[in-house]
Amino acid sequence: MSERRGGLGRGLAALIPTGPPPGSAAPAENGAAVAPASPAGPSGPEDKGWFAANGAAGAQGGAVAGAVYREVPVSQIKPNPKQPRHVFDEDALNELEHSIREFGLMQPIVVRELGADEYELVMGERRLRASQLAELEAIPAIVRQTADEAMLRDALLENIHRVQLNPLEEAAAYQQLLDEFAVTHEELASRIGRSRPVITNTIRLLKLPLAVQRRVAAGVLSAGHARALLSLEDADSQEELAARIVAEGMSVRATEEAVTLKKSEKPAKPKPAPRKPIQAPGLQELANRLSDRFDTRVKVDLGRRKGRITLEFGSVDDLERIVALMDKNQANQTLETD
């Protein structure tokens, strides 16, 4: 038999023993294989065992301590509060519900025990939802000890393995793992079977404007479109091109070409700011005197070489009135000089 591959999805063999290993307890009376229990408290804040180079216990497919198979009432199962997936395809859920009604739940979910008659989901959100739709009273489950720190990790691994997360959910889950475990992109990539560039580029999607992120989460834009948009520096350009992608149905290749063309465009030269008029002392007083003389609004502007006097009039008659006042003033000045 070929060696088991590391990385995503350890399968049922990693969750419950397929047979009693040497030194283990005998199977329980109900036929469920029970591994010897061992204390498994939450790891400390500096515990990176899951990300260690040699891997945590069971990382290569060993049995998980304390795992037991049993039928669990659906009403006693609480959802995983750290479930990274937020969008569930309704058609796929309905198909799974129909399958469960016909053949039952073929693959058990994974839960942890919180107390008497109370469980919390670790893996299998879609199966639990479909079972609820099928109105099952109890479903098969693997009950195992899972620390709080492992809840997000296990749910993320299952969803990535089944390709159920949209790119934004995956990016948010990666970022949360980095924050909670204080590890590098390289360490995270090694443990979940992804390359470091994939981790880094996926997390970069969180830098997109919210309007673009919503389109990615809704499936209107693909991760390829989103990564191409990241090459544009300003949010307005990203949102503008995202809207164009949706309207024109552009491919990722066409989007990359549009980004290249956009980046090669020379920025428009800013228009020169209008010159501020020179505020010479006495200009406003002169404008007020002229306004009083002609009974209208007068504006006096002084430039570097010349100035301008602007008189407002409300109608042709008003204009003739102002001209008549000017003629009268000129006639008075002529008489005074004579």
UniProtKB/TrEMBL annotation:
InterPro entries, sorted: Chromosome_partition/occlusion, HTH_ParB/Spo0J, ParB/RepB/Spo0J, ParB/Sulfiredoxin_sf, ParB_dimer_C, ParB_N
Basic and acidic residues bias: start-end ranges: 259-268
Record keywords: Chromosome partition, DNA-binding
Keyword DNA-binding carried by entry: yes
GO molecular function: DNA binding
Domain of life: Bacteria
Gene Ontology biological process: chromosome segregation; positive regulation of sporulation resulting in formation of a cellular spore
Span of domain ParB-like N-terminal: 70-160
Compositionally biased intervals (Low complexity): 25-44
Annotated signal sequence range: none
Stored Pfam families: HTH_ParB (PF17762), ParB_C (PF23552), ParB_N (PF02195)
GO cellular component terms listed in the entry, alphabetical order: chromosome
Region (Disordered): 1-54, 259-281
Family: Belongs to the ParB family.
PANTHER family in the cross-refs: CHROMOSOME-PARTITIONING PROTEIN PARB-RELATED
Listed name of the protein: Chromosome partitioning protein ParB
Annotated organism of origin: Amycolatopsis alba DSM 44262
